[in-house]
Design brief:
This protein is mostly helical. The chain has ten helices and no strands. It starts with a helix and ends with a helix. Its main location: membrane.
Amino acid sequence: MVSVKTLVSLAGVINSSYGGFVGTFRLNLPMLPGENEISVKLGVVKFLTMWNLCLQSLYFTICVLNDIAGSNEIAPKNPPLIRRIKDYMLCTVAFPVSMFVGLTFWGLYAIDRELVFPKALDPYFPSWLNHVMHTNIMIFIVLEMVLSFRKYPTRGNGTGGLTAFMCVYLVWTFIIYFYSGAWVYPVLEVLNWGQRAIFFIVLLLFVNSLYFVGEFVNKTIWGKELRQLERAGSHKRSN
């Protein structure tokens, strides 16, 4: 019998994969002020939203495979590789990046939508797809946090993996700017270089703070199980 967790994971795969497919192959977005042909041809691939959809598709696919061939035990003696990958991905990138994408998009949208999603895109970009890309991603990752146990890695390993991922994307935005002369996000067009540096630093600090939010949420939900693991570990070391 298929578990609720597996159904949620399958729904997560469908949501992110379908959103990525429609965003990549079914949209015909116009050229906006500040853009050029290179920027337009890249389409949604230039956005962190699309990177996150790919990340979620991969993560929830791994969840399904782990349900089938791995282990969901609280403390398996020899955790399968797929389980170790799944747990590390959730902690370091899947949760913080999904929450970062959703919160920053809707936060800037509420302040001034022209900074992230100009009204000129409305005829070409359906509102439901916006929710698939920026709302559902948070819902599914929170459900995964609630339904699946994991032990967080050391903070150095966790924040290191997250920071590396975000720095790779940051380099990608600079590559696009170097070759196209256009910034990925309109908000960067209205900032000078000093303000951009501060903007990037603040966002990097914010996404890392979401790592600690995830760690806190995990400890709140699975505190009893985590304490049992700690006691069992202490007992083994004392023997």
